[in-house]
Every structure is written in structure tokens, then in C-alpha cells.
Amino acid sequence: MTGTDTLKARNAIEAVWRIESARVIAGVARMVRDLGQAEELAQDALVAALEQWPQSGVPSNPGAWLMSTAKRRAIDMLRRKENLDRKHQELGHTQSTETDAADAGLAPDEVRDDMLRLIFTTCHPVLSAESRVALTLKLVGGLSTAEIARAYLVGESTLAQRIVRAKKTLSTSNVPFEVPAGAELAERLGSVLEVIYLIFNEGYSATAGDDWVRPALCEDALRLGRIMAALAPDFAEVHGLTALMEIQASRIRARVGPDGAPVLLLDQDRGRWDQLLIRRGLTELAIAERLGPRGPYTLQAALAACHARARTPEETDWERIAELYAELAALTPSPVIELNRAVALGMARGPAAGLELVDKLLTEPALKNYHLLPSVRADLLMKLGRGEEARAEFLRAAQLTANERERALLLERAESCLAVRA
């Protein structure tokens, strides 16, 4: 095999691993009941592929090959443990059926159940939010530790330690590898959706660093959302979150200029919005609303749909957006939601109406260091012709943000206030 052939084989293996790793880990974890061990066994299968495929060629069903190899290694490991005779009895049937099933391709229901178990485990509330995000991207998303570290602007060793600690916490806490039942299912599903949304938001509006958006994270979150929509099709909020991400992601190309500078919503070239993603999002929104009742993600998707349906900024139904924010605030009270409602009121009824609500939020402790509060207030003040006050607010917002692109935009807007006269 030539060097070019070897490189092609390695690239193929990497692509297959990104797609199939979660299924392999999930299938093995059901056998060994330990997420860390399952990942190690799946990695062993990957090493075997790296050794064999460049010589033998990529098999016709590479995912099944990886699954079969990993499960055989799991069986070997289990056989070496205590109570060998009992394990032989338990695994006799497993070896004759499961490995054959892996060769032939697992039944859809089995894959679905294994994947759900994996996602509910990596998103278990016993872990911190940052650990849930890292572990989910690693084991479900198929990202490398280096890729996750780069995305979140942390050192690779720091990220690796975070993942190790997360797996250890799951093990010491005896977290079962299972899909929760009954009332616990809805509660745990909320944790899963929260993790996916956190990943998407960091990609859509980076909290720190030099980039305004990180499309790769949005793509990873979208992939996870689509997986969940397929695995849990009867839950409205799963479709609501997927709808929200599809519609929001449709704007990514228009959110930055040629130099990487932020482009605000009303200034975006709507011809650059991805219509395929919008259609997919509206379809998911229709499913969510049909399943009902409307939860927070479905309501946010409905808000995003108002923008997606407007061919121009002037056609935006701001009154409807304000109503949806009021409905969302009643469901999940939050000063951030109220701040967004103030923006909508300012657009629908004039800046004075928006400013009245914003000023009521100035004493909210949760918004004390939230840069968008002075940013929104500055925008409303500027529209009212109160340039000096607006400039001071933009400067305060610039001090509070940790994103360099956003800081530059806020400072630019602060300087533009000098031309405004009361």
C-alpha cells in the first residue's frame, strides 16, 4: 500500500470514528456497565482499525466492524474477572448473538436504547455543567480532547482532567447506565437538552476569545439535537430545541462580516440565511407545537421563527415577539427574558416603552455584570437622542464582555454616539 493509500485509509477511519464512536461506546457500556471502560474498549477497537484497515482496506460496514471488535474485547475482559464460571454462563449466549448482531448491524431499537443510555449518562446532573458538556462532546459527539479544549479556550490537559474526573464521578456515584423512567425521565431529559443548548450557545455567541461565532460547536450541537429528536420523538421540547437550533444556525454565515466582525440581526443580509435550515426548523417547530404543550425551547423556537419568516427587518412582527417573550417569562421567570422583551417592546412601540422596562431591571442582582443590560439600554438611549448617556452605557458594556469581537463592536458604537445630540 502506498503512502497515499495509507493516508486515505487513516482519513476514512477518522471519519468513521466521528460517526460511529458514540454507538460503539454505548453498545459496549451496556455490557460492562462502566463508561470509562467502555471508552477504553472502543478506543482499542479504533487502534485495531488503524493497524488493520490500511492493509486490508476499509470494511463494507465499518461501524459494525468496530462494534464487533470492541464487544469481543469486552467479553475477553469480563471473562478475566472474578466468578469466571458464572461469567461463562452469562456470556455464552451474549457471545453467540451479540457479536453476530454487531457483524450484521444492530437492530434499530437496540441502537436507540443504547444511545439514549449513553446520552442520559453523560448528561447526568451529578456532574457539573462544564463536565457534562465536555463528556457529551467527547463520548457522544465524537470530538477529540484537543478539539474540545480549543473550542472552549482551555488547555488540553485541563480538559482531559475534567473528563477523567467526570467519568470517575459517575463511577463512584454508581450512576446506572440506563434510561430513567417515570417522573425522573422528564427531569433528566431537561439536563440533556440543557447540555446541548449550552454547546450550541457557545458556538452561536462565544462568551470569550477572538471569534464572534464558532460554527463547529453549533454543528455539533445540531447533530446532538437531531439524534435526540430521532431517539425521543414523542417529547415536544426535544423538537422545540432542535427547531430553535436549526433556525438560529441558519443565520451563522450572516452574523459575521468578511473581517470576522459581528453583524447584528437587523443589519444582516437575509439572502445569506440558510433556507434549508429554516425549513427544517419550521418543520421541527410544527411537530413540537403539535405534541405540546409549548415549553421554553418551543417558545424560543417560535420567537426565532418570527425573524425567519420576515423577508426584511421591517416585516418583523415585533408585537408577536413581545407577546411570546411575555409567555416565556410567565413560564420561566428570568430578568434576561424581560430584557429581551424590552428590546421587542422598543421595536414594537418605540424606544421609550423599551427603556421603561429596562430601567426596572437595573437593580436586578443577576444582571449586575451582564453586558447586554447596558448594551440594550445604550441602544434605546441612542434612539431617543440621548447620546452622552448612550455612550457611557456602551463603554460599560464593553468593559463587561469577555469576547474581543463584541468589545470592539461596542466601543465602535460608543464612538458613534458622539454624533448624536440630545
UniProtKB/TrEMBL annotation:
Residues 188-286 form the DUF6596 domain. PANTHER family: BLL0085 PROTEIN, BLL6612 PROTEIN-RELATED. This is RNA polymerase ECF family sigma subunit. NCBIfam families: sigma70-ECF. The lineage of its organism: Bacteria, Bacillati, Actinomycetota, Actinomycetes, Pseudonocardiales. GO terms for molecular function: DNA binding; sigma factor activity. InterPro entries: DUF6596, RNA_pol_sigma-70_dom, RNA_pol_sigma70_r2, RNA_pol_sigma70_r4_t2, RNA_pol_sigma_r2, RNA_pol_sigma_r3/r4-like, WH-like_DNA-bd_sf. Transmembrane segments: none annotated. Residues 119-170 form the RNA polymerase sigma factor 70 region 4 type domain. Residues 23-81 form the RNA polymerase sigma-70 region domain. The keyword Protein transport does not apply. GO terms for biological process: DNA-templated transcription initiation. It holds the Pfam family Sigma70_r4_2. It comes from Labedaea rhizosphaerae. It comes from the Bacteria.
